[in-house]
Amino acid sequence: MAKKVITRRDFIRVAALSPLAGAVAHGMKRMKGAFSSGQSRVVLFRDEKALVSFKKPDPEVVQNMLDEAVTTLLEEKGPVEAWKRLVTSSDIVGIKTNVMHYLPTTPEVEQAIKRRLLDVGVPEKNIGIDDRGVRRNPVFQRATAIINARPARTHHWSGIGGCIKNHIMFVPRASAYHPDSCADLAALWKEFNLIDRTKLNILVMLNPQFHTVGPHSYNDKYVWNYKGIMVSRDPVAVDAVGLMIIEAKRREYFGEDLPMQTPAKHIRIADTKHNLGVSDPSRIELIKLGWKEGILI
C-alpha cells in the first residue's frame, strides 16, 4: 500500500495507481470523484471527537467530517463548491436514510447533508428525508437527485448492509431480492432509475456493527466506536472498503478469520455482473483523513 502526502491530506492508495489522472482532466471536471476510467475514489474521514457518548454523534464534528470528506472527494476549495458539483438549486433531492432503531443513519448526519443542500440553494420544500416511506413520499417520487446515507452493519440476508442495499426500499417487495445472499441487489439500481439520480453515497462508520446472529440481530457488544464517515460517488467501492474494515474488526475481536454468517457476495457481483461500480481493491483509491488510531485498513 503506497502512501503520498499532498499538503494536509493523506492520499493512501490500496494499490499503486495513478490518482484518476484521465478522469480529472480539465474537460472532465464534473467527473472528479466519480467511478470512471475503471477505478473509483473513496474518502474515509475519522475524528476522535465524533461521538459525545456511545452512538451519540457531535453535530458540529459530524458536519466538519462530512464537509472535509466531500470536499476532498471532489477536489474543491470548500463544501458548498463541492455540493454544487453534486446538485443544483433546481434539483428535487431525496436524502435516503436508514431508520433501523438500534443503528440509524442519525439525525446529525441527515441534518449535515440537508444544511449543505440548503446552502446550494435547494428550497427546503424540495428536500425530503426518508427510508421506509420513499415509495409514497412526494419528494422522492419527483426526485432528480438522491443522497444515499446509511450506517455500516453486518446483515442476516446480505452479509453487510451498506450503500448498495440501502436503496432496497424503492422496490415494492424487498424479499424478492433476498435469494442467494441478496446476490443481485445491484439490479434494483437500474430497474428503479437510481444509478444516475444517486449523486453521493455516504457510509456512516461512526458505530459500525461487525457481527450478526439471525434476522434483525443487534447487540451493543458487536458495535464499536470507529468514529468515521466514508463517501464516494461509487456505492460498490464504498461498500467494498466498509466490508474490509468490518472483516478486520472481526479478526481483531474473534482472534481468527471467522466467516460471516452470510457472505457479502452482492458487492463483488454488483461489479462483475451488474457493472454498478468497482469492488476490486486494486482499482480503489482510498484517501484517509483525520484520526488514524485503530483505522484497521
In brief:
The chain is an alpha/beta fold and 297 residues long.
Could you walk me through the main structural features you see in this protein, from its secondary elements to its overall organization?
The protein has one domain. The chain is 28% helix and 22% strand. With 297 residues, the protein is an alpha/beta fold. α1 (59-74) crosses α3 and α8 packs antiparallel against α9. The chain has helices at residues 59-74, 79-84, 107-120, 138-142, 163-166, 179-182, 187-191, 235-254, 265-272; strands at residues 3-6, 9-12, 40-46, 51-53, 56-57, 93-96, 127-130, 145-155, 159-161, 198-209, 228-232, 284-290. The chain contains nine helices and twelve strands. Strands 3, 6, 7, 8, 9, 10, 11 and 12 form an eight-stranded mixed β-sheet that branches. The chain has a two-stranded antiparallel ribbon with strand order 1-2. Strands 4-5 form a two-stranded antiparallel ribbon. A hairpin with a 3-residue loop joins β8 and β9. The model is unreliable at 1-31 (pLDDT under 50).
The value of Rg in angstroms is 18 Å
Overall tally of domains: 1
Calculate the mean pLDDT score and round it: 89
Question: How far apart are the first and last residues' alpha carbons, in Å?
Answer: 10 Å
| Number of helical stretches of at least 4 residues | 9
Order of helices and strands: EEEEEHHEHEHEEHHHEEHHE
**Helix percentage:** 25-40%
Sequence stretches where pLDDT stays below 50 over 5 or more residues: 1-31
Morphology call? globular
Number of strands: 12
Q: Describe the sheet with the most strands.
A: 8 strands, mixed
Beta-strand content estimate: 15-25%
Structural class by sheet pairing and helices:
alpha/beta
